[in-house]
Amino acid sequence: MLDMKGKKIRKSKENRPKKGKTPYDWKTFFQRGLRLILVSGSALLIVSGGFFAVRMLFESGYFGVEKIRIMNLKRLSSEEIVAESDIRGGDNIFNLNLEQIGKKIEENPWVARAEIERIFPREVVIRITEREARAIINLDYLYYVDIHGEIFKSLSVDSRLDYPVITGLNRDYFLNQQEKAEALLVKAVGLLDLLALNTVFTVDQISEIHIDIKKGFVLTTNQSGVPVLLGHDNFRQKLARLEKIYEDIKPDLASLLGIDLNVADRVIVKLDRKIT
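The structure corresponding to this sequence follows.
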């Protein structure tokens, strides 16, 4: 605003309208705070109640083991596996250390693998993979050899003996030439696998596989103990040649000194002249 002389007139602060302060709504504040406390308290009560409910459920025995199911057994019994698992009826299913239980069961030499599973609410399933004996090896003591060529158990008084015996490898050779010895053992088991495919000259026709480090593998027939020379390789072809004629020479095994399969495309039969 200008005065009569054209100068700007400043308004006095006293003339300006004063802004009034809005009073704080304490009632609304306390209502909201109370509502927040009630909601938080309710949530805490629900969580605490749930926790105690779950705890009571755990302690009530609802998850106590009632059934242990053993699968895939052939040689072993369910009672053996349950005893070795150390699982007892009533044990809380959540407290079971499945890995440790599996390791305990696998201490049994006949168990190659044990898989443990919880079936809620009260069942445990144990799946067993058993070792399958394929041969016996003589290393000062007699041991079983499985289908993978692994030595896994010494024989006891009541052990089955109706398996081919692998000879020629001694304990010192295993200690000093472990890799070579294991490779030869795997090769011997592979030879047994090939014999299992035959229909005439089969695993049942032999009693022994002898491993000669220099000369190779020699089979010994059950009947008359005739050696069959195989050498170091080409077992499939060599056994196929013998398979074709074995039915014909089987009646005369008692008069044979040996059968040599190392000559290509031939089966050389050595006669015992003393008998003939």
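The longest strand covers residues 111-119.
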